[in-house]
């Protein structure tokens, strides 16, 4: 696949769709380096706000861990039914916090893994449907190594021309 075959008119917005962009059906925007539409934030996560989403998950995890510690410290352990009756609210709260903590931790770990591979949730889940990934000779044409991927994600605020990376990497001899 060459550059002219890749470029197409984006029918929903009547725009030329940049590589790795996707039109979100929920918020009706084209999002560069689209990752997902977050129902909790009621917003798309993409190239411009994905680092902030990671900060959001990290802060959420810290708050949940703190809440879990506070709840756990309020529990009284004993053999009496009376103690259990007084602890039931704290026990249920602790179990809910534990469940949310596990969910947020798994979400944060999965996003950090995908970032280290320079791929998005959408690309990971829809690899077989995305033309530039389906026709690529490489498994992930955007992967530039863990260190560079993390550096560019967290430290670079420039918008990336993904087409240059894609066509440069796919033209290298194997």
Poorly predicted runs: 1-11
So how many helices? 7
Proportion in helices: 40-55%
* Beta content: 5-15%
SSE string, helices as H and strands as E: HEEEEEEHHHHHH
Average of pLDDT: 82
Shape field: elongated
Quantity of strands, as a count? 6
Distance between the termini: 16 Å
Strand order of the largest sheet: 1-2
The biggest sheet amounts to: 2 strands, antiparallel
Structural class, please? mainly alpha
Radius of gyration: 22 Å
Commentary on this structure:
The protein has 174 residues and is mostly helical. The protein has helices spanning 3-6, 50-74, 81-116, 121-125, 131-134, 146-155, 162-171, and strands spanning 9-10, 15-16, 22-24, 29-31, 36-38, 43-45. It has a domain at 51-171. The chain is built from seven helices and six strands; from the N terminus they run αββββββαααααα. Helix 2 packs antiparallel against helix 3 (81-116).
């Amino acid at each position: 696949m060459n550059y002219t075959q890749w470029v197409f008119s984006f029918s929903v917005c009547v725009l030329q769709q940049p590589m790795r962009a996707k039109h979100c059906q929920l918020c009706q925007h084209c999002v560069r380096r689209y990752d997902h539409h977050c129902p909790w934030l009621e917003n798309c996560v993409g190239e411009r706000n994905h680092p902030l989403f990671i900060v959001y998950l990290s802060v959420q995890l810290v708050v949940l861990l703190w809440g879990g510690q506070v709840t756990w410290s309020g529990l009284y352990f004993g053999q009496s039914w009376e103690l259990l009756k007084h602890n039931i609210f704290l026990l249920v709260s602790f179990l809910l916090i534990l469940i949310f903590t596990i969910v947020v931790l798994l979400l944060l770990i999965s996003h950090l893994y995908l970032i280290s591979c320079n791929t998005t949730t959408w690309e990971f889940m829809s690899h077989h449907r995305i033309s530039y990934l389906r026709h690529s000779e490489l498994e992930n044409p955007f992967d530039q190594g863990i260190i560079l991927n993390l550096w560019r994600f967290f430290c670079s605020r420039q918008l990336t021309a993904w087409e240059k990376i894609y066509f440069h990497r796919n033209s290298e001899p194997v």
